[in-house]
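Render this sequence as a predicted structure.
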Amino acid sequence: MTQTHDRDIAVLGAGMHQWGKWGRNFVEYGLVAARAALADAGVEHRDVGYIAGADTIRNGYPGFVSGATFAQALGWSGARISSSYAACASGAQAIANARAQILAGLTDVALVVGADAAPKGFFQPVGGERRDDPDWLRFHLLGATNPIYFALYARRRMALHGATLEDFAAVKVKNAKHGLNNPYARYRKEVSAEEVAASAIVSDPLRLLDICATSDGGAALVLTSMEYARRRGVADPVRIRALSTVTPTFPKTVLDLPDFATDSAVAVEPPPRTFRSAIAHAAYEEAGLGPSDLSFAEVYDLSTALELDWYEDIGLCEIGGAEELLRGGATTLGGRVPVNPSGGLACFGEAIPAQAIAQICELTWQLRGQADGRQVDGARAGIAVNQGLFGHGSAIIATR
């Protein structure tokens, strides 16, 4: 997979701030991650021609203009900037912006940064009264917090495919074991299925240990043109081969909060793929690869049940086959295609603008062979997937 394609860009540097509950300003987390990524790439921040910030909407005005916030914190250098918000796909949108600048020939070196300082407990609606805002309404009218949303998907999986509470617990057990050796993870402790079952019910059928936490943290990448990487003596860098941010196709027949209803499919045939599977499919098409080419995957495990859905959405198995794939050990380190070798959100928690960037850090370290204690043997290609609100989603494929 070392062949270079016209739209490949190099990942020259990756850096993170450990995730947890630190009680400090989000800019501090982003700076630590950015400086680590720059050091990893051997690049000075004044050599960066473009800074792409992933926005956080819960940290005041600096969070809304994160590109400028991080550029100022590093030291104004005249670099071009952008700031992107796409809910949990914000980091991928920032990566997409940087990639476009590089491929357009407007810069050789781009820095992508995302960081968050999240509230304790599950996310609350953004302040203010907005009765025409579906997200405000889903909290205030339906009382549908995020755990309720996760639980609806879990119940759907149980009804359609026979998933059990034991299957959900097995996902947590797997990811907790993977995250033990990740120095950036917030939770680094093995968990038993009995502990998952004994944890408090948050939104039936999901227990506390089925649901990811909210966290502080940051992640950053230095992205460059392939030519620049070669000039720096990096002949075979990790490269981003494809990036998908496709929207749903009408009619959307699976309910996604904050939407209150699906589109009508009475007069129009449903599309051949659901939204999440379409995100991954577009990335495979661009990369010229398929699920069978993957060495591993990082998926968006807001809950244990949602991870099982992603197995099918990224084509690791047929619809309804996720439980069998899990039970057979295929998605565990040492299995055919390990999923969330980083430990996933189960071990990190949500730091929204940093999540997709952190996934590419993990892809980078795995493909370099630097994921000590959690390394996927012979890793050559990986995919990272996310879904944000209101039709946002992302899939990124990286290869070596």
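Summary. The CA atoms of residues 249 and 271 lie 6 Å apart. The longest strand covers residues 9-20.
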